[in-house]
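Researcher: Please predict.
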Amino acid sequence: MILKKKKLILISVAIMVIFLWFLTFLSPEWTIRRHILTSLQPINSLTADITTMGRVDVEYGYLYNVSGYMHRPTGDELGVVYLKKLGPFWYVASVGTGP
């Protein structure tokens, strides 16, 4: 009985985590924050300032300015992120220091 309850709780938590991870693909800001998090910068993923530049490049996609995202090996700030949209889902197309 206790084993079934623990298994149910574990499955519920796993489904919740997968659902929340899925939601990060639906918003440009959360897509950038997820990308920063997967770059092993959890604090920066929460504190980065993200603003849209209102520009769309044909090759790279939508331009966003990000303050607070660092390239760990060099210490340079990666202030430019291009996102592309595939249906309702956003993904990072390019990251760099300038357009």
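Model: The CA atoms of residues 56 and 62 lie 4 Å apart.
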